[in-house]
Amino acid sequence: MLPFKVTFKTGTPVYEQVLYAVRKALVTGQLAPGDAFPSVRALSQELKINPNTAFKIVGVLKQEGILEVIPGIGTIVSANYQPPNKDRLAFLEDTLESLAVKAKQLGLSRDEVVEAFNTHWKNL
Amino acid sequence: MNAIEITGLTKRFGRQDAVRNLDLSVPAGSIFALLGPNGAGKTTTIRMLLNQLRLDAGEGQLLGTPIRELSERDFEQIGYVTDNHPLPDWMSLDYLLAYLKPLYPTWDEALCTRLYKLFEIPGTAKIRHLSRGQKMKAALLGALAFRPKLLVMDEPFSGLDPAVRELLIKGMLELSDSEPWTVLISSHDIDEIERLADHIGILRDGQIILTENTNRLLERFRSIDLSLSEERPLHEDCLPPTWWCAESTRKRIRLVDTAYSAEATQQLLSKHFPQTMDASITPMSLREIYLAIHQHSGSK
Fold first, then answer.
1. Which structural domain, as residue segments, surrounds residue A52?
2. Is residue A3 part of a domain?
3. Which of A52, A80, B250, B257 has the most CB atoms within 10 Å of its CB?
């Protein structure tokens, strides 16, 4: 079983969806520094994705310093990895987009929406 | 480099062209899915590729060898799994594997054992007593254990239950850590291969009507659903040729955009449908794209 969950939806490249799922697992702590990361074969088999895609995913994560290879052990989440703020923000992307779309459809101004948001923020 | 390269492939049965002037390039290292309805020519194409069926016209090469010159040496690197190619049914699986092993210099015993465990096929029962799914697993096991450079699968999933399909795919992906290997898979089970295939070829009436990289295909197709504020007769001829009209009622129109880009599509929409109340643009699954292409090519 993989240490993160991917719910595939059509229309978005598979590798982007898997990278998203991995980053999400890192932000939420499901995947922690030092945790073992699945091999290309396991990734491909578990998600039933093209092995080249799995290879690309692991490659990108290594390049970003998220994964490192420990000889004799395998691939792990880098011991000193901290998810950057932009990754945390990325998980609001969908919500922000639909908020913006809804607001425009309703003919609200940006200031009106920001003001309403500020009120909610203060009330928390 | 291409693992498979064919041009002008043609096969006639009597006066009927089963396959007509077919070109196909399968890049090395890719998983190429050949899609099409029954009778489109998938099996005929595959059998010609493997030199099992004489070509009436055309030429091609597999792993660098011209099709007509394929010999036993070449088949040591090519795995072939098909529903209509019976296994010797008086053998048991154990017997079959022992028989196959010395025929392939690259036979990987460790991989064979792993697949044997994964597939859970009874090893001592005669193949004729195995279920359909078990036979397919046995065939795949025999074709994977020598780590083929090219794996050709003709309708491997048809008539099998989802659990067996899953297992077959998992087994196939055991090869993921091999040197670059190429898969050509013919199927009409599109859902199974949506995330697996990186190239798609669609066959219809013996001809290839589309070959494309899967990601590019998924990126450029969108379903557009329009609600119009006023009724308006739809003149399909006036629409951009990249738009296919899927359905239309009095105030609703569903289009398939085959050349989607956020900006260009938006511009075309405001030009052609200024009276739109609501437009939703949604990505399409491979199955939906396949059906749209099929419908469109039939209406031409």
1. 14-81
2. no
3. B257
